[in-house]
Amino acid sequence: MLVRLIYASRAVSVTRDSLFDIISQARNCNPTSGITGVLCHGHGIFLQALEGGRAEVNSMYAKIMKDDRHKDVTLLQYEEISQRRFGGWTMGQVDLGKAHTSILLRYSEKAELDPYTVSGTVSLALLEELMDNAAIIGRV
Ligand SMILES: Cc1cc2nc3c(=O)[nH]c(=O)nc-3n(C[C@H](O)[C@H](O)[C@H](O)COP(=O)(O)O)c2cc1C
């Protein structure tokens, strides 16, 4: 049984180094639990999609919620899926500080990542469009 979970959170003093640590941790650990996904960051916000087995995704989300490198962790969407959308990434990365303005503007009032003000469906559409525009790095 595959599921996809999407959440948003606010970074707590995240630097380039700590971001690198988070991505490395994800890329090291996710293959063991069969989790794939994408982590978007920009404007002090994280938007992450996790896909994989229900038990594995649930327990990873429980761990992530307790991580003090971010706060205001908010579940945006949780659904059973028949296939993965982000299966090519143990954890893909999108730095929204680096352009992609027109993609952001398509889905929000300002060219800023703000998943707290849009639906989970819109956040998934944004992630899919970033993928279609080859904005996700770190494919393995
Ligand atoms: C925004 C964010 C995203 C994260 N994504 C993942 C992830 O996809 N996979 C992962 O193993 N850890 C991820 N982590 C790190 C986990 O919160 C946790 O530190 C890590 O799984 C190690 O937990 P443990 O020491 O309890 O095993 C993320 C942390 C943050 C702040």
How much helix, percentage-wise, in residues? 25-40%
* H/I helix tally: 4
Instruction: Characterize the biggest β-sheet.
Output: 5 strands, mixed
Radius of gyration: 14 Å
| Count of β-strands | 5
Listing every helix as H and every strand as E from the N terminus to the C terminus, the arrangement reads EHEEHEEHH
Give the neighbour order of strands across the main sheet. 4-1-3-2-5
Uncertain regions spanning at least 5 consecutive residues: none
Proportion of strand residues: 25-35%
Assembly category: single chain
For the termini, the CA-CA separation is: 23 Å
List the helices and strands and how they pair.
Layout: E1 2-11, H1 16-33, E2 36-42, E3 45-53, H2 54-65, E4 70-81, E5 92-95, H3 101-107, H4 120-132
Parallel strand pairs: 2-5
Antiparallel strand pairs: 1-3, 1-4, 2-3
The chain binds flavin mononucleotide.
